[in-house]
């Protein structure tokens, strides 16, 4: 399984922000960081988005549904796991 590239193009394909698991509270907390990411500052270990490329979330804790299997990156990178926000590398 190739590592998902931390690119702006990939970030735009990520469905996490539309996912029921991503709470409004965590979206509000992550807003400044997401703005930075959108500006292209993506070379980092952690981000509260595109969890398959970065680590697990520091904010999300309750699994509701995972949209990863329907994400284009899931197919593009031959991902097998889901809930990348709950566990680094998915589960
Ligand atoms: S596979 Fe999941 S975590 Fe990765 S970009 Fe798609 S929706 Fe986001
Ligand atoms: S990794 Fe899966 S469960 Fe977590 S926010 Fe993204 S789509 Fe939702």
Large-scale geometry: globular
Radius of gyration: 12 Å
Uncertain regions: pLDDT < 50 for 5+ in a row?
none
**Associated small molecules:** iron/sulfur cluster
Largest sheet: none
Provide the succession of SSEs: HHH
Number of domains: 1
In helices, the fraction of residues equals 25-40%
Describe the overall structure:
The chain is mainly alpha-helical. The chain has one domain. Helices cover 29% and strands 0% of the residues. The longest helix is centred in the middle third of the chain and has 15 residues. The radius of gyration is 12 Å and the shape is globular. One iron/sulfur cluster binds next to helix 3.
Write the layout of secondary structure elements.
Layout: H1 8-13, H2 24-38, H3 72-76
Residues 14-16, 50-52, 67-68, 71, 73-74, 79, 84 line the site of one iron/sulfur cluster.
Features:
91 residues; mainly alpha; globular; binds iron/sulfur cluster
Question: How would you briefly describe this protein structure?
Answer:
The chain has 91 residues and is mainly α.
